[in-house]
Design goal:
CATH superfamily: FAD/NAD(P)-binding domain
CATH class: Alpha Beta
Helix content: 10-25%
Number of domains: 1
Number of helices: 13
CATH topology: FAD/NAD(P)-binding domain
CATH architecture: 3-Layer(bba) Sandwich
Length: 520
């Protein structure tokens, strides 16, 4: 059975970007339908358990990675209302000005189609709306920006110990900028520092779409259709005409719209475009440049762990960490790339920052000894290093493997650059030095964790060298807008969510100011 709905705006994906677009456009009086493949989560579903937390990660069809293990697909994505922003840690630094001009300044990666100054007002606007806790005076490399609207989050014993280690090495750190309330603000309570951010934030201290843009969009009349999977964008000579989806009953749902916004994910947006082949678009929709899926970028996660002489209270705080150090190595003889250390994250028994992840080889008596003697004295640094944008790293669709609806699965093809690997090794060595300086009696590194995905639908001024313009509008398909970190031509070794929001805010403003040009 096929049924049809008509609207002005169809949005695919109810994560950070999709929810913001829904809120902005619905508030302006536009009829909005959001299609979300996952469940209709509420804050009552956010329970402080790593087993329950895993429900918030990607639970749809997988992406096939080449080589295996080069992509942590389930970790990097979300499913259901809120998307990955439902379980994100709210680490919100701004990209540095040089990150927008890497090709021009250093001859590597790609340039963005605009400078930091263009995006600054939107960073400032999102910062005020969502709330960021931090201390700008302590951030030595913070670009020009409005002051943080809240004081920094509390620091605990683990953080103070590690801060001393950085300072001993002459490395200045600052409170980590976080989209988490340090004080009650805008009707949302302050953080209680129980360290369960990865499981979502049921009290709403952490700014995620369930407590920000989704309720705002719903109040303005936007409709969210959950358990509804988009499988194709139907287009004709004039542009995108409808989204073909499968509803919870397995029936076909055609959502016709004047404007279509793809806000699924770095992997699923290219997959949907490539699966929207037709006689008019034989290589996929919006793919005249051949770059849909290209320049997939995956940053390198590094971890350094140490056992201190006394207990660290490492269960307290937030998963993002208590302090941040940002570095960039481009001098001769040093790795090329920016990076961030998130210092003293709250730790739980398992998963990415957990005790089990740090020493997976321990069994029997040695595990018992570690848990009895060392677990309470554990301290940790986690960081991400930038990756060089490379055209050959890309998302494609499989010629054989399909999902239960018959749509080809996404495949990722990824080879880490020598610069990225060298930077990761530099971070591992630096992390051990910091721990030693902080007084650790032993220190080690964790495995490389692929994370912070971007690219695949990059923006640019040249239609032959990009997929969209600087507002995310697809070249050659005037009523198709792409959102999310897939637009990033290059990264900064910094958490991407704040920048993703700023881009979406700029695009939404432009759409509303030029509605008749977008809505066909």
């Amino acid at each position: 059975m096929t049924r049809t709905l008509e609207t002005e705006v169809a949005i695919v994906g109810a994560g950070a970007a999709g929810a913001l677009f829904a809120a902005r456009l619905a508030r302006a009086g536009r009829r909005v339908i959001v299609l979300e493949s996952g469940p209709a989560w509420t804050t009552n579903d956010l329970q402080s358990s790593q087993l329950w937390a895993r429900r918030l990660k990607w639970g749809g069809v997988t992406a096939i990675s080449h080589p295996p293990g080069s992509l942590s697909h389930n970790l990097s994505h979300g499913r259901g209302l809120g998307g990955a922003a439902l379980h994100h840690y709210a680490t919100w630094p701004r990209f540095s000005p040089e990150a927008f001009e890497l090709r021009s300044r250093f001859g590597s990666s790609l340039d963005w189609p605009f400078s930091y100054d263009t995006l600054r007002p939107y960073y400032d606007r999102i910062q005020e709306e969502m709330g960021i806790a931090g201390d700008a005076a302590q951030e030595r490399d913070r670009p020009p920006a409005a002051p943080y609207p809240m004081p920094p989050l509390m620091a605990f014993k683990q953080g103070e110990m590690l801060r001393a280690g950085f300072e001993t090495l002459g490395m200045a750190v600052s409170p980590l900028p976080a989209a988490i309330n340090s004080v009650e603000r805008n009707g949302r309570p302050a953080c209680i520092y129980d360290g369960w951010c990865d499981a979502g934030c049921p009290i709403g201290a952490l700014a995620n779409p369930l407590v920000t843009h989704i309720p705002a969009a719903q109040r303005s009349g936007a409709e969210f259709l959950t358990e509804t999977t988009a499988v194709e964008i139907v287009a004709d000579q004039t542009g995108a005409r409808a989204v073909r989806a499968i509803d919870p009953d397995g029936d076909v749902l055609m959502v016709s719209a004047r404007l279509v916004i793809l806000a699924a994910s770095v992997i699923q947006n290219p997959r949907l475009l490539l699966n929207s082949r037709s006689a008019l678009h034989p290589d996929g929709l919006a793919n005249a440049s051949g770059l849909v899926g290209a320049y997939l970028t995956i940053e390198s996660g590094a971890g350094a762990y140490g056992v201190m002489a006394e207990e660290t209270d490492n269960f307290m705080g937030v998963n993002a960490g208590q302090f941040m150090y940002r570095g960039a190595h481009r001098a001769r003889g040093k790795p090329d790339g920016g990076y961030q250390w998130q210092i003293a994250p709250a730790m739980k028994p398992n998963d990415i920052f957990g005790v089990a992840f740090t020493r997976p080889g321990l069994f029997g008596a040695s595990l018992d000894q570690f848990l009895r003697n060392d677990a309470k004295r554990l301290a940790a640094l986690v960081g991400f290093g930038a990756e060089t944008s490379q055209r050959e790293n890309r998302v494609t669709v499989s010629a054989q493997a399909r999902d239960r609806f018959g749509a080809p699965l996404a495949e990722t093809h990824y080879a880490r650059s020598p610069q990225s690997h060298a930077l990761w090794e530099h971070m591992n060595e630096e992390g051990r030095r910091v721990l030693a300086a902080a007084g650790a009696t032993q220190a080690w590194n964790g495995p490389l964790v692929p994370g912070h995905l971007s690219g695949g639908t990059i923006m640019g001024n040249d239609p032959a060298a990009s997929v969209t313009d600087s507002y995310g509008r697809a070249h050659g398909v005037g009523n198709l807008v792409i959102a999310g970190a897939g637009l990033f031509p290059a990264t900064d070794g910094a958490s991407p969510t704040f920048t993703l929001y700023a881009l979406a805010e700029r695009s939404a403003e432009h759409i509303l100011a030029h509605w008749n040009d977008y809505a066909l």
